[in-house]
Automatic annotation (TrEMBL):
Residues 358-517 form the RagB/SusD domain. It comes from Duncaniella dubosii. This is RagB/SusD family nutrient uptake outer membrane protein. SUPFAM superfamilies: TPR-like (SSF48452). The lineage of its organism: Bacteria, Pseudomonadati, Bacteroidota, Bacteroidia, Bacteroidales. Pfam families: SusD-like_3, SusD_RagB. One of its GO terms (cellular component) is cell outer membrane.
Amino acid sequence: MKFRNIFIAGLSVMALASCSDYLEVDAPSQNDPDYVFSDKTEMNNALNGIYASMMSGDTYGDKMFSTYVMNTDVDFKTNSSRFLSGANWSRYDADPDGGAINSTWKQQYTTIELANLFIEGAESSQLYNPEKEEDYKDMRQMIGEAKVMRAIVYHDLTWMFGDPAFSFNSSRTATVKIYPLTDRAEILDKLIADLKEVADDMKSTSELGTVERISKEMAWAMIARIAQTAAGYTLRPDGESYGKMERMNENYLDYYAIARDYTQKVIDSQTHRLGKPFYQVFFDECKNVATPGDDVIWEIPFAKTANGKVGYSHGIKLDSYQSETPHVYGEAKSDVRLNGVYRYLFNENDVRRDYVNQLTKYDAPAGDAMFDNNYTVSNGKWSKLWVPGGLGNQTTDKTGINFPIMRYTDVLLMYAEAINEIEHGVSGPNGAKAVEALAQVRRRAFPNNAELVEPYIAARSSEEAFRKAVLDERKFEFAGENMRWRDLVRHNLLAENVYWTFYRYLSLAESSETTSTNLSSVSAYDFDGNDEAYDKVPFTIRNIRSVDNTMKDEAGNDVPIYPENVFPNQSVKVCRILNPYRTMSSAEANALGLSNVREDIIEWSKEGVIRNEIRFSLRGYIYMTPEEGDENGPGGVVVVNDNGRYSLDSRDLSTFPSSKNLPVIRYILPIPRAVISRAQGQYENKYGYK
């Protein structure tokens, strides 16, 4: 939004950063730190530099929400290669030489260095004096913002690397040149304590008047998120193996208590609510509308045509021809996508389903709207097509669409989860409040179906059932926000989820031509025992390309084919898809009396051969061998990775294999080899990385 101003002003703090071979912070000193930290305007400019650093394409400007999103039942990136490359993290295929992890590591520690420098300078400033009440209040706010950004980065580093390098000292004050690798539990404890110390003194969203700056509520919510991570499972080193899943902390309920207390603070502040319809939250981000007090608590403030790939990597695919599009919206790659089966997991009355799962793309040079025939679907939360007036027909990335780092929805669901874990269900003293927190999220998802809110939750009141209900709600809420795989890890469900995700794809691919022996088990696993739920999944999509977004209702009135809450851009032509969720015969389609109906075949299998995208998109953990076979088995068998050795999967799916009897999945990334080389022997990789 105001990134140009933030970036220019942020040069002040970049100039404060000292050179360090280890951190590789390259910023020659131009401004005297004593001068910068003697003036609040200069300090605010310096603070903006930390915000600017977080907008890098190597981190939150792109890769943190594209490259490092792991394949699950929600987010999914296909891959047709039978060979491991070491650089396809989404399919759990990594090695220390992967180039992107090195650039991301460096950028994250650049941001940390800037935050450390700012905090040290601000806390040493003459203005940081409780007797100077107004100055002190402003200083506490700025220090809090820097501490929250530092906490976000360190928290993400623990998710990516397990036990990363850690220090609250800048390279100017550190007593060692190489930050020590530090246990993740210790890091999270220090982050929680650090934020607790400052959070209450920060300004609320209502005082700031924007969700583009970090507020008190954001600090509280971040404490809760970190505590929730500390309460969960994690992959720990275990000799030369891929590791073992265990609780990060034995006293995990103490961390759930922290999450409960700090989400309660956000809720009690009454600063945020779920006022907007679901689609409007993200549509407004595409329109440059940042509304304080609603769902978004903090979003990264990108600027139009300046930076950020939200809506270019996400959203509806917009093809270009000779670097131009035949419309004003510009090119969009749509390569951060959703699992092709994800949309079938929604209740048909859930208003999130059709907005999030978009099935249309626009070709070039004609610009026709057509069915996006793919193994995955585009994520409609953010799209260049939703930008009013478009960004221009020659634009590519740098959309300037903001990205939400924290939403009130997450606060409500963290609170509900914490109460359930602490009180072992929702019949205890705070159970009603946990139920209400979950109900608020479902009311927005089902505004016209009250029976799917309170009665739905009442039927899931046991500890296990309510835990699953909260996890399911998170599954349907946070697509594209890099949440799902982390939620699964916290509950030790990632291996199970990836295993069933593979068989979900494989069984449907087999069913597209013949009969799958596993589809009924997959269906029963997904739909509480209903083994026929996938029987109506269509493999032929009947559609009409490039028509006006208008049709006749039963009374003969003109109504939108896709209303705004499904397809916000009401001025462009659309692809009318007649059977997105069920089979439809040619006779049934013809009976509708429509012309130009096409039949697009979804070919997940052809002539009995499963497509490579189905076989190999989870190659680092589970895959089907090529027809000619390979070193791990004969042709056409499923093999699972157990600590680096693949073996035939002979499990009976009707027994519902779970994480309890599946090999661990190595989701933690290796420390880049270049970093290990610079660390002078102090770092080494574990988890079976060589």
